Amino acid sequence: MRDASESPVSLVRGTVEALPEEFARLASLESRILRSFELSGYARLRPPILERTELHERKSGVRILARLDRVAQEGVCLRPEFTAGIVRAFSFADEAPRTPWRVSYCGPVFRRDEARDDRLREFHQVGVELIGADRPWADAEVIALADASLADAGIADGVIRIGHAGLIREILESSELPTATQVALVEQLSTPAEEAASAEHARAIFRGRIEAQLASARRLEPARPASDSADDSHEGAEQLFALLYPEPSGRRSAAEIMDRLRTKRRASRVSAASTEAVEDALERMADLHGSATVVLDRLTTDFGSRAPRTIAALRELVRALEDRGVDLGRVVIDLGFGRGIGFYSQMVFVLLAPTPAGLVEVCGGGRYDGLARELGGTRDDRGVGFAFGLERLDEALRLRGAEAASTDRAPLRVVPALASDLAAARTAAETLRRAGIAIVLELDPARVGRADDRAETLVVGAGSIERVDPRDGSRTPTNLHDLISRQHDEAIQRP
Fold first, then answer.
1. Prediction pTM value
2. Which helix (H) or strand (E) holds 102?
3. Are residues 277 and 224 in contact, defined by beta-carbon separation less than 8 angstroms?
4. pLDDT at 268
5. Residue 401 near residue 447, CB atoms below 8 Å
């Protein structure tokens, strides 16, 4: 027998228990969002919770890989997100799905963060993927769906923040930076939004990482007199080379080797100048945020020759959003928040809910063309999607003073008037349940006086039913038909 003084078994850090009332609130919220997806043509699917770590190592980037929740079996983890698994399902299904393929999902995801006690290790996502459709109309479709779903959840004034990973890539492609430096820079700039407390903080992190990464890429020589040029004879260097290697081996002569060294030296100076130019361009890009019209005009002026593809894509996306009825007054283009640019290939976006405590990010997504190829697939590799963080959305609603309607009503209690009325009470309870009404069946007539203080009690007798008001105990005659009609009318009126 255990000692009563033993300490209780605590929750695993980063997990929470959803007790019935909280669970009902979250379930109601999830149901409303999934219904919005269903009405827009997105069919449900259920990917596995256990995944191969390789699935996420191929493309997810450092921000996900560092937080993988690995299990005892080598090479296996709990899923950190849904997109890669859904793209894998599309790519390797026995029969190729017809495109465009619209699917939705919900369920837990797992990410560990030993450095942050306040982060959930287990949380829930509700989202969609649209595979096999090209931008801009597909991008506009998912952004508009996310915005409409947020309104269905009770937040109709959300802010839509849009960025574009393609701008960074186009700027880097036109530079002289080595490919390895470009890849490292993209990876380093992919997490400011997740780490920052605000959009301004994200841009500050973004600018800092630009400077740090490009500084590490520079290989500057010690300062030399202004009269000293890269085309000097390098007499001292040549003398040292002749001393160390009087008879060079290999195919190249001493003169050829020295000429290659001079060429590399000149190239290093060009590279240094290039990093400064890239740094200036990316820092100017990081400060581009505001209304769609203003930012697009500034983009055209500042980057029209360096990133024409990205600018054209953003203009097309804004027009497509307007065609779908999205309020452009709530759209902000922000090219400095850098959400997931190591994973996303082009458009990225987040939805932010205004609350008394500030803006709360509740949804995020983007376009991930090429992910299917990274996973070894040969089918259509175009894709775009988003996911709501269910707990974050619930937090935003509560900060705004909103509560899910499902928590307002307790189940009806059915109690027999006398012991001889047990069969009648059981029949009434079964009829109401088949009509979709939650019922708690009590078999003890004495329970009438101890009813739940939020629940109405139905006292079922021989050929009669009375409804007991929990507030004052008053009784009103009723019948099953009226009860079912009233319950259904109330359900329709709830948001």
1. 0.75
2. strand 101-110
3. no
4. 43
5. no
